[in-house]
Amino acid sequence: MLFTDDERAALDRVPVTEIVALASDLDICAPAEIVREALLEQCVHAIVARAREEGLPFSKYDRDDISALPPPLLDSIGRLQGLRGRVTVNSIVKVGERVYRTYQKNRPDNPVALMLPMLLGAVARAALQPAGASKPT
Alpha carbon 9 to chain centroid distance? Predict the structure, then answer.
């Protein structure tokens, strides 16, 4: 299971149009009949794949969400940010701010940057899987 019950409850309040916008940004074609959790899982795996290439966009406002992650998930996010050795919230945010600036320049109002705080735990759990591991379709 990729999402916790608390995450599911929060994501249930997200308008479907925002989920479709996220999927579109990640080059995922939304099906005619949308199953929220399935589409969000696809999005999470696509975010992880993109993050392995360019990192995750964070700002100083994401610090509390990142700090709330348990150590294995914090390390998972740190690896997506390209960090090696001891991973800290500060180091994750520092790299994330550079990625965020690139997003603001090239992808303003990007749905990944906007929805990442709600998807952070799921992204971290998905990133624990080896690159190329099977993922839901």
Answer: 17
